[in-house]
Every structure is written in C-alpha cells, then in structure tokens.
Write a sequence for this structure.
C-alpha cells in the first residue's frame, strides 16, 4: 500500500490535467519567434540584401574631397641650382574630385545580378531552415505526446491491477482465492507503477528537448501538450506526379540550388567583363595656394575629362579567374541536379511512409477494439470463476500493448504527414 500511495503522489505532480495545454501550432509560433537559429538565418538574409545595395552603388558617381598642407625646407644644393628659392616654402591644396564609371564591360551589371541571386538563395535558405525547424518541433511535440499517453496507459494499467488486487484480497479472505493469486496482482501492479515512472521520465526528457527547440529556458516549463485525438481523420496522400509538379516550384532546397546556379553564372560573367575596356568620366575642382590656406577665386582651377582603359595582358590572371568561375558554375549546376534527385526520392518516400502509417493506424485501432472487448470478457469470466488467472493476465497485457501501439500509430501518422508536407515544400504555419 505504501508503494501505491507513493505512485499516486507521483501522478499528482504530472502536468497532465492542467487547464492550459500546448498545441502544435502554438509550439510552431513560439519556435519561429524565439528559436536562435531563426535570428541567425534572418541576419544572413539581411546581409545578402546589403550586398545588393553594395553592388548597386557602383552605378552612382563617386565624390571625394581632399585637402593637404605641406612645408618644404630646401637644401643648399637646391638653392644653388635655383637662386630664387627661399630657405623654405609652404603649399596648401584643397580639391573636390568626382568620378563616374560609365562602362566596365558588363561586370558591374553581372555583380548586381550575382548579388540578387545570392539574396534569392538566402531567402530560400531562410524558408528551408524554417521548414526544418517546424519539422523538428513536430517530431519533438509528438514524442512528448506519446510519452504523456504512455503515462496515462501505465496509470490505467496500474488502476486495473489494483482493482483486481482489492477484489482478490476480499476473495482470499473468504477462502475463494489463494495467496499466489494476490501476489500475482501485487507484482503486476508494481510493474505498471514502474512503467509509469519510466514514462514520466521519458515525458520530462521529451519536454526538455521541445523547450530547447522552442528557445524556452529550462526554468520556464511548458504547458503539457494537448492529448492525442484518436478520431482525427487522416488526410489523403497526393499522387506523386501531382505533388512533384508543385514541389519543384516551391521547395526551398530547389529554389536555393537554382539561385546558386544563376549566381555562379553571373560571377563567371563578371570575369568575362574583365576582357573588355572600361570607360569613366572624371572631373575635379582644385584650389592651390602658397604661404597660407586662405583660398580665393584666383587659386581655383578645374579639370573635366573622359578616360578609357583596356587591360590587354595581365599574365593570364583573367583567364585563370574565368576558368575557375566557369567550373564553379558547373559545380553549382551538378549540385542542383543532385538536390533535385534527392528531393524526388524524399517526396516518394514520404508519400509511401504516410500511406503505410495510415494503414498501420487502421490496423492498430481495430486491434485495440478487439483486445478491449476480449479483456472485458475475460475479466468478467474470471470474476465468475470461468477463466484462469493466466488468461486474464494475458488479456490485460494484450490490451495494454495494443493501446500503446495504437497511440504510437496515430502519432506516426501525424509525423508522417508533417514529413510529407516538408518534402512537398508546403510545411508552413497555418
């Protein structure tokens, strides 16, 4: 009896009957708000957007202001060559210079294209990491639900065994049952209590893992996950061809790979631009004065011009850079093809796994109903003295096992559906 009281106190500490519960959608919202990886990925995307602005700045003129002052002391040799020189001289200069790159062989445009494609790749990575986060939260959430249900199942088993124990004690006192019968139910009650303790530990572990994914401190426990709804209808899995046609336009991994290919091709175009001449306009306004920096209009001059330059030979550096960039584009294209094949395989596997999970759930639910009916019949027959203790033990064990498997199958179907949405690229917060 002492162990039973201890067990009941343990159950009282479980957050299984709290009014506030956590849904999967709530967990997703918390994760997208507080998970550190979300902030990291967002920062990377913002960096990519900044690089676009950097590339666009090359289209604008550059304006530079300079100023300097110097004092020169002349040597006797210099003064001997020019008797008009003083011992020293001071010179001051201020200038405002503007340059404007008009044409650089298309390299400027290609750099901008590369930056924009890199930003598209970063945005796709942001979506991909978010989907991975949602999928991981889904796995942790269903694991916590399963652990909670296992606590419930073990508790129900312990209550069943305790009911039988109390009944067998009355029958033993009346001489209608043996001590061995009573010990049987005592042992099975303790086994069920021990299973509940293990299930509680598994529940705590699962909730800790879920909290870490959500970005919640360990000192702030989460509400218990909602109970499993065994009657929730299963969705119909899509046809592979239909699902793939949708996935190839919205799957973040494919979008990222394609953007990386275009960015690599744009980088190769940058290197091709180095083979062409560049054209720039320039102008400056310069004020020069000796003795003091009190510039007047007479000290100011200006220059306006156009410059063309063409690097005819650089020892083969351009050619090497272009070859490297071209091979990088080929590498990106091959990698994109590999990602596409992997995505096709993952989608096909996800559809197969989901259909199998739906069928498995149907089988386990039917098995559960049969074992429940069988257990109830055997229990009634045992009380009437028409069934053996061994048969009752077997029926209860079959029922408990079937209930656990039914819950597992239900959550496997839930997780398989999440995995299918991830493989399709449609796993988003509702």
């Amino acid at each position: 009896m002492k162990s039973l009281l201890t067990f009941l106190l343990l159950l009282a500490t479980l957050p299984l009957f709290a009014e506030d519960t956590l849904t999967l959608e709530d967990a997703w919202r918390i994760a997208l708000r507080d998970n550190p990886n979300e902030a990291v990925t967002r920062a990377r995307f913002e960096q990519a957007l900044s690089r676009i602005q950097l590339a666009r700045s090359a289209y604008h003129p550059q304006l530079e202001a300079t100023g300097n002052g110097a004092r020169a002391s002349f040597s006797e040799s210099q003064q001997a060559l020019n008797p008009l020189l003083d011992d020293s001289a001071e010179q001051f200069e201020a200038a405002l210079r503007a340059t404007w790159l008009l044409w650089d062989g298309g390299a400027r445009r290609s750099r901008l294209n590369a930056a924009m494609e890199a930003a598209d790749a970063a945005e796709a990575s942001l979506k991909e990491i978010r989907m991975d986060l949602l999928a991981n939260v889904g796995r942790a959430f269903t694991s916590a639900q399963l652990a909670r249900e296992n606590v419930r199942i073990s508790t129900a088993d312990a209550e069943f065994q305790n009911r039988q124990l109390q009944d067998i004690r009355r029958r033993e006192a009346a001489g209608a049952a043996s001590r061995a019968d009573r010990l049987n139910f005592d042992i099975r009650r303790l086994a069920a209590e021990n299973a509940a303790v293990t299930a509680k530990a598994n529940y705590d572990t699962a909730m800790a893992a879920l909290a870490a994914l959500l970005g919640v401190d360990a000192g702030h426990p989460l509400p218990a996950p909602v109970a499993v709804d065994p009657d929730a209808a299963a969705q119909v899995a899509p046809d592979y061809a239909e699902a793939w046609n949708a996935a190839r336009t919205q799957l973040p991994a494919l979008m990222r790979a394609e953007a990386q290919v275009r960015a690599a091709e744009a980088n190769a175009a940058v290197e091709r631009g180095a083979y062409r001449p560049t054209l720039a306009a320039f102008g400056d306004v310069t004020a020069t004065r000796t003795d003091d920096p009190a510039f007047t209009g007479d000290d100011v001059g200006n220059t306006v011009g156009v410059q063309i330059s063409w690097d005819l030979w650089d020892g083969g550096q351009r050619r090497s850079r272009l070859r490297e960039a071209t091979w990088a584009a080929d590498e990106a294209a091959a990698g994109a093809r590999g990602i596409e094949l992997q995505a096709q395989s993952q989608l096909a596997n996800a559809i197969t796994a989901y259909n199998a999970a739906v069928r498995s759930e149907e089988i386990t639910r039917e098995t559960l109903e049969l074992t429940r009916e069988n257990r109830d019949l055997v229990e009634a027959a045992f009380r009437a003295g028409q069934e053996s203790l061994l048969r009752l033990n077997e029926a209860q064990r079959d029922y408990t096992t079937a209930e656990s498997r039914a819950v597992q199958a239900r959550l496997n179907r839930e997780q398989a559906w999440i995995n299918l949405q991830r493989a399709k690229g449609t796993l988003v917060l509702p």
